[in-house]
Amino acid sequence: MVSELPLDQVRTLLAVVDEGTFDAAASALHVTPSAVSQRVKALEQRTGRVLLLRTKPVRTTESGEVVVRFARQLARLERDARAELGMSGAGEATRVSIAVNADSLATWFLGALTRVPRELRVGFELRREDEDHTAALLREGLVMAAVTSSPDAVPGCSVRALGRMRYLPVANPEFRDVYLGGPLREALVEAPVVTFDRLDDFQDTFVGRLGRGRGGGGAGAVRHLVPTSEGFLEAVAAGLGWGMVPEMQAAPLIRAGRLVNFAPSRSVEVPLYWQQWRLDSPALAAVAGAVLGVAGEVLRAGPSPSP
Fold first, then answer.
1. What are the C-alpha distances in Å from 32 to residues 29, 68, 142?
2. What is the pTM of this model?
């Protein structure tokens, strides 16, 4: 088994993944499509693994994800080294790609980014994704860091606890009076509900926990799908349905009388973690420091309580 990975082959694989096809990668690299194909085949022979599925666009295999992640980390280290040696262009900025869930993005995360020193000239590329799925973007090498719900580190990454984000079951006061007058679980099974998208089962899980020992079942059949955190909040406040809303968003509207917490003892706390590539990158270290600092101020500390 040959131990080293030729850098020209690794970079070529990354170009194919980023461009989507061998022809597009050849154009980006200013070589022939045949040269691209030969480099990828040689890398697969060297690793003894199939790295790409030849679809349109191409898709990486599990082994291919490992090599692509390595290629992106290598490119990051090269850019950092060039910057420290004064070889970067005068207008060149450092790009840091981060996956973050919508609720964090709408509440505390942007405030953390403002604490990154401006002299570092960091440009942020944010990808919004559910906290249960952000780790997949890290695993595929598509982002350098992520806010996740998993304490299990992605290979090649470090993980640190951020804290717990509290969610409250809330509704418009008139909505509560019309739909939530009876036993809570039975009422929620019939009441309209707001969800983020078709994959959002947070509200269903909440209702299911209320019914432990009395059969399954989730939230009601009348659903409003609102795929932004701010829009979700406004939909609930407008009376379209009930929903689980971050305490940071719900508290001002509760004080203003626009929302009510209809189950005060039933809040749900979601643990969040910061995962990032294990790289000695000044920009990435500065972002991590800022994120961890703000999270320590606004999120709840300690282990998540049992539901």
1. 9, 21, 26
2. 0.77
